[in-house]
Specification:
The complex is a heterodimer. In chain A, about 60% of the residues lie in helices and about 0% in strands. Chain A is mainly α. In chain A, helix 4 runs antiparallel to helix 5. The N and C termini of chain A lie far apart (about 80 Å). By secondary structure, chain B is of the alpha/beta class. Chain B contains 14 helices and 15 strands. The chains are: A mainly alpha, B alpha/beta.
Chain lengths: ~190, ~425
């Protein structure tokens, strides 16, 4: 049986439409602004949109993408999950241009993980220097992770600093062990 | 390595939550004193990761007490490690099997010959490398590693420390898979046209959001995460389900692809190489806890032009299908079929020109190699190459563009973003060094 078409809206439909007109949902947020407010467990649709844009950006447009990510990272209200997300995105497109913005974050225990994630794939002496400089600001596990990144980047100019850490009794065991292993790694890589 | 700089066990325990990437003194016992060469001739084994996949190892490990002895079980979940150790002790009728919360303690035991790595994927490389550094042979569950970079590091460690390293792709020790690969290699299907691999789907039933939960008593969540990016605990994203989360695994592409693409690699004679071109696309959830592809579809192409497809099959489980000018062969774990009975008869006939190594028991093959120091049927290099094919698929689906791959250099050609996806930085203090 064919469904009978109603010629005019029902009272319920009208009420629903009225409610819609009064909705305070607001406009769809800019994904680049929303992604830094990401919460663990929260809806990550806007972050996903940013990710898709980044991935589909051709090489000639990545500098602009990188700039947008760095700008987002500098906004107030950046959550831990948001910073982690931006770090992962920068790991795909980041360049030496990210170093000035990420270097202070690398030295800060609260943001060092995300910054290291972003910077580790960035080649060049500027990033190497940022890693070495952060050695003086971090302790414990974060410093051990930093040392691992320095070694994997193949920064042989860090050997002197690493040798000092290895033999420094003030350093924690985890840090000294990381320095020992990094020196061995760099020696083998050089060989 | 300078032994004076290495951590003592006491120091290590003092920093148990912080110790660096598999930091360890390489207490390598002279082989003459180890289990495999001890008067008893028993191979002593430690098991790291006592969850779902470990279940499939307890039987074989406990089934030959005269030659293999399981002496240690490790898990970051107290309930699992205690249950595992109790299971072993019940089987042996003693209390010799010890439970460990930290794999580094197990790896430092000087009386253990081999370590089975049955952890979530993001831990495979670090646990196995640490074990080899400490003189253990390793059996590493599939997928071999989370990333291509980790796989190469694992191979390098196996060679550096001269260790036997078996990848847990037991299809390599099932005769029907061997026979198919050998038949294809001997042009039994005539000119091969293509390989089609089908893998089961990822879990798709996960909401758009999730709630962090209190970490259960007895679970060391920080250690469970290890090198993976931090996130709060949720029971939805821990045991078993980790495979659907990109931070911890690459979904069924590497979980089942490790089996079905592996047989394709074997048949293509690509155990030390791989494809040169990849294209495809996947469907990924845009929100929710689970992030791996819910619908896999990619193709790798070898230098001879032959493609191997990998797709999700929503009903019917995994399979590898070989299609050539003489017909087709379809093989899965439970059955084999062909376009004609003649092909099946020919496939099983003896005397082929090219004969592939035959193993009919993956565990026994590993233990035999532990004794003889030969390379196992699914040697770590083979496992790495197969895991790489799976990862190439994951990367091409992530990027959604055609990629070219140099299997000798293990580099993408002309795609910096793709090359960056070959590895991932690890959370502190962990590192591949």
């Amino acid at each position: 049986m064919a469904e009978k078409k109603s010629s005019s809206p029902s009272p319920v439909d009208a009420a629903t439409r009225s409610a819609d007109r009064k909705s305070r949902a607001g406009e769809t947020p800019d994904p680049w602004e929303a992604c830094i407010k990401l919460e663990y467990g929260g809806d990550r649709s806007f972050a996903w949109s940013v990710r898709e844009q980044i991935i589909s950006t051709p090489p000639e447009g990545r500098a602009q993408v990188e700039e947008r990510l760095l700008k987002a990272l500098a906004q107030p209200g950046c959550t831990d999950a948001g910073r982690q997300f931006v770090g992962q995105m920068l790991a795909m497109v980041g360049s030496v241009k990210s170093v000035p913005a990420l270097a202070p974050l690398l030295r800060d225990p609260k943001s060092t993980e995300s910054a290291r994630y972003a910077l580790q794939p960035v080649a060049g002496p500027e990033a190497d220097a940022a890693f070495r400089e952060a050695l003086g600001s971090l302790t414990g596990a974060a410093k051990a992770g930093l040392i691992g990144s320095i070694a994997l980047r193949g920064d042989t100019t860090a050997r002197y600093a690493l040798a000092g850490i290895k033999d420094n009794p003030v350093e924690s065991a985890v840090v000294r062990e990381a320095a020992t292993r990094a020196l061995e790694y760099l020696a083998n890589a050089k060989a | 390595m300078n032994s004076s700089s290495l951590l003592s066990r006491r120091q290590f325990l003092q920093h148990s939550g912080l110790a660096t990437a598999v930091a360890a003194a390489p207490f390598i016992l002279p082989s003459g004193l180890r289990g495999q060469n001890a008067p008893s001739k028993k191979i002593t084994v430690g098991l790291v990761g006592a969850g779902n996949i470990a279940d499939s190892h307890f039987g074989p490990l406990l089934g030959s007490p005269e030659s293999v002895r399981l002496v240690a079980v490790c898990d970051v979940d107290r309930e699992r490690r205690d249950e595992g150790a109790a299971r072993v002790n019940k089987a042996y009728g003693n209390k010799d099997c010890k439970a460990y919360a930290d794999f580094r303690e197990l790896n430092r035991r000087t009386d253990i010959d081999a370590v089975f790595v049955c952890t979530p994927d993001h831990w495979h490389a670090l646990v196995a490398i640490d074990a080899m550094r400490n003189g253990k042979d390793v059996y590493v569950e599939k997928p071999l590693t989370l990333t291509i970079q980790e796989g190469r590091a694992l191979v390098a460690a196996a060679r550096k420390y001269d260790r036997v390293a078996q990848h847990g792709t037991q299809h390599r020790s099932m005769k029907r898979f061997h026979d198919v690969a050998e038949f294809v290699r001997n042009n039994g299907l005539g000119k091969l046209d293509r390989i089609e691999c089908y893998i089961p789907p990822n879990n798709r039933h996960c909401g758009a959001t999730w709630q962090p939960e209190a970490v259960p008593a007895g679970l060391d969540w920080d250690m469970w995460l290890g090198p993976a990016p931090w996130r709060p605990y949720t029971s939805l994203g821990c045991h078993y389900n980790f495979r659907f989360i990109m931070d911890n695994a690459n979904g069924q592409v590497t979980n089942w692809g490790a089996h079905y693409l592996d047989i394709g690699q074997w048949a293509m004679n690509a155990d030390d190489g791989g494809p040169v071109e990849i294209e495809g696309h996947g469907e990924f959830p845009s929100t929710g806890l689970f992030s791996n592809s819910t619908n896999v579809n990619f193709t790798v192409r070898y230098a001879n032009g032959i493609p191997m497809h990998c797709r999700t099959r929503f009903e019917g489980g995994g399979t590898s299908r070989f299609i050539g000018e003489r017909g087709w062969l379809d093989i899965s774990r439970n059955k084999m079929s062909a376009s004609s009975n003649d092909l099946l008869r020919e496939m099983q006939a003896p005397g082929k020109k090219i004969q592939l190594a035959l193993s009919t028991d993956h565990h026994e093959n590993f233990f035999e190699c532990v004794r003889t120091r030969k390379r196992p049927i699914a040697d770590v290099e083979i496992g790495h190459r197969t895991a790489t094919v799976c990862n190439l698929g994951q990367i091409v689906m992530t990027l959604g563009r055609k990629l070219r791959w140099d299997p000798a250099k293990e580099e993408f050609i002309g795609d910096d973003m793709a090359n960056r996806l070959r590895g991932r930085p690890m959370r502190s203090p962990w590192s591949l060094i």
